[in-house]
What does this fold into?
Amino acid sequence: MNNMNLMIKMYNNEKKGKLPEQAHPTDAGFDVQYPGETPIQISSRQTVLIDLHITFKIPVGT
It folds into this structure.
């Protein structure tokens, strides 16, 4: 297995968002959080677009 380290920059746009976090060091992914104050209900099979107020800069070719 090849280990590859990537430099991914994350930005908290307008200080409204919360940057993703890993709950545990062994987690493969990151948890994101909805920054809004109003609750959102998402029904089964429904697709919604939610602005998390975060931006990622990922290296070209990855």
